[in-house]
Design a protein that fits this description.
CATH topology of the largest domain: Nucleotidyltransferase, domain 5
Number of domains: 3
Order of helices and strands: HHHHHHHHHEEEHEHEHHHH
CATH architecture of the largest domain: 2-Layer Sandwich
Helix content: 25-40%
Number of helices: 15
Shape: elongated
Radius of gyration: 32 Å
Strand order of the largest sheet: 3-2-1-4-5
Number of strands: 5
Largest sheet: 5 strands, mixed
Oligomer: single chain
Length: about 350
């Protein structure tokens, strides 16, 4: 028969105290609880119980004493909350400093755990351990500053803003329904998803490009939201990459892509258009736009960012390890072999030499 075990409850302890006061022996108490005798004797020993022969009371018969069910239950609850082994991650220890270094680099707790795991001498750390260590900190300025390093500043999703209908303004569109299956299956790099993200009052914008297979990100500085500015800006950035890395672009039906034919002529890239109100058809791009809001927040003026500044932001995303890539970085998958050394890059960023690694 399979053995099972359950802890004593407050009702069990109350029964133990009551029967002790009535003169029951530990063996009899254990039988009434359907427990081994040792279960009751250990409970009494760790909670200060004294046998009747050890208790003296003038004018009264000797009775057992020292056991209180309420105190015993309080002690059990307190001990159950205490870790049996020393915590690996404690505020102020060397590993904590590495975690903070990762947060300062814009990594999520899960990305930090994945990065440490990929080093020459892996550090096994669960991302949930990082979250628990952060939120277990006592309230104060340090806790507030640490939580502020986490990626998202709000806990609830906000409803999408409803804008004007932009359909019917793009000539000669090729629907996503006609897109070859190898693009959907992410078989080779060179297939991109694109979009605009807007600044305060929709008066400034930045173009975003995400490569579907490697998650590589490129950002485009745009002088305005016109179709010509979009074609010029996207074309300039796409020309940075070899021809076999600019195979296709999937975009929504925004009027800024009205001159897509010129973009195809300039770069050789084939443009496909998603269905209206179907952001999931460009899910990689939508997810990346959310990540970019850490650096390009809503309500800010995006025109202040130079192309170099946007390249720096894109590089931060491209050097982050991604769970969907087996904790590899977009840069090491997209760039030519050897152009990006993951271990040396993150060893320097996290100062792992201080930990002896």
């Amino acid at each position: 028969m399979k053995k099972t075990y359950r802890h004593l409850t407050v009702d069990d302890r109350t029964l133990i105290q009551t029967q002790l006061q009535q003169g029951f022996k530990p063996a009899a108490i254990a039988a009434s609880l359907s427990r081994p005798r040792s279960c009751v004797t250990r409970e009494l020993a760790r909670n200060g119980w004294k046998a009747a022969s050890a208790t003296r009371s003038v004018g009264r018969p000797a009775i057992a004493g020292g056991y209180s069910s309420s105190r015993a239950n309080l002690r059990a609850r307190r001990l159950s909350a205490m870790p049996r082994i020393e915590r690996k991650l404690v505020v102020g220890n060397p590993l904590w400093e590495k975690v903070v270094d990762g947060l300062l680099q814009g990594l999520s707790p899960e990305q930090i755990a994945g990065t440490l795991q990929r080093m020459d001498e892996p550090i096994r750390l669960c991302h949930e351990t990082i979250y628990q260590a952060i939120y277990a900190m006592p309230k104060g300025e340090l806790r507030t500053e640490t939580i502020a390093l986490l990626r998202h500043g709000h806990n609830k999703r906000r409803p999408r803003l409803r804008g004007c209908d932009r359909r019917g303004q793009i000539p000669d569109m090729t629907s996503i329904d006609l897109r070859p299956s190898d693009i959907e299956e992410r078989q080779v790099p060179g297939h991109w998803e694109g979009d605009h993200i807007k600044g305060a009052g929709n008066r400034s914008q930045v173009g975003t490009l995400v490569e579907r297979k490697t998650r590589y990100v490129a950002l485009v500085k745009l002088d305005d939201g016109t179709a010509q500015a979009t074609v010029d800006g996207f074309g300039t950035i796409l020309q940075r990459f070899d021809a076999d890395l600019r195979r296709s672009l999937t975009y929504d039906q925004g009027r800024e892509m009205a001159r897509h034919a010129q973009l195809t002529e300039d770069t050789g890239i084939k443009v496909y258009f998603a269905h209206p109100h179907s952001p999931w058809e460009r899910g990689q791009n939508e997810n990346t736009n959310g990540l970019l809001r850490q650096y390009l927040p809503k309500g800010s003026d995006l025109s202040v960012h130079s192309q170099q500044a946007l390249d720096d932001i894109a590089w931060k995303l491209n050097t982050r390890p991604r769970k969907s890539l087996g904790w590899k970085c977009p840069a090491e998958l997209f760039l030519p072999g050897g152009a990006f050394d993951f271990k040396s890059y993150w060893a320097d960023k996290l100062n792992l030499v201080a930990l002896g690694h």
